Amino acid sequence: MAKLNARDESRRRSRAVDASDRADYSEALERGLLVLTAFDRDDERLTQAQLARKLDLPRATVRRALLTLTHLGYVIAEDRIYRLAPRVLTLATAYLTTNPVSRVLQPVCDGLAEDFQTSCTAAVLDGPAAVMIARALPQQPLAIGQGLGFRVPAVRSALGRVLIGGLSAERRRRYLLDHETGGERRLARIEAEIGEVAAQGYAYVADEVEAGFHSIAVPLRRWDDVQIAALNVGAGTERLPREDMFERVLPALLTTARKLQPQLV
What we know:
This protein has helices at residues 6-15, 27-38, 48-55, 59-72, 89-98, 100-116, 158-165, 169-179, 184-200, 242-260; strands at residues 75-78, 81-84, 119-126, 129-136, 151-153, 203-206, 213-221, 227-236. With 265 residues, it is of the alpha+beta class. It has two domains: 6-87, Orthogonal Bundle (Arc Repressor Mutant, subunit A); 99-263, Beta-Lactamase, CATH 3.30.450.40.
């Protein structure tokens, strides 16, 4: 096996629980997953060289990962270009069908989207993003890539701020140090804002993720009061005014969260 570079060695140390686990950590599996997640809307088709540059990995490492993923059916090779195969969807399906939270929340999102005639989403925290595990729009098709699994920046979104606010103060600061840039002053401001979100029990964000769009989110807690997800309603500011967000939507979200708690395990 090739010697790890400094970045990979740091990643390995941070993810291994203790020294005894390091020998069991599979860098080959990690790099294969990195290759899969390198494809996105902006990079739907990539060459080996492009993947190697994007991931800062040796080209030989990327080549081995691509050949393995192609053999397993997760990647399609077209001449020297690679793209994801439909089989990748089985990974998301496995999560959604084995996660009872998603099954409980999808009909809830459907109902709220219909009530307010705008989008309703449930999400969990995944690294620097809030990832959607249930989503609905009122009698409208979702744009490709904006349904389940769609990611929004956690620090800039109402969903993400609620999710970060659910962390302990120590974990919250460590999270922001790992995923936010801009200096100590900006970090302190964001930390204070998210602390306020945690105290008040909701987050409202406007014009951050998308101009002319605002959303409000509340935490979802399971039966033992541990926060496990966030629920939001979002809309264009012309479709749903700010006052409606606080006077109509927020009470409905809080009531829904309370009713859901006994069902979330």
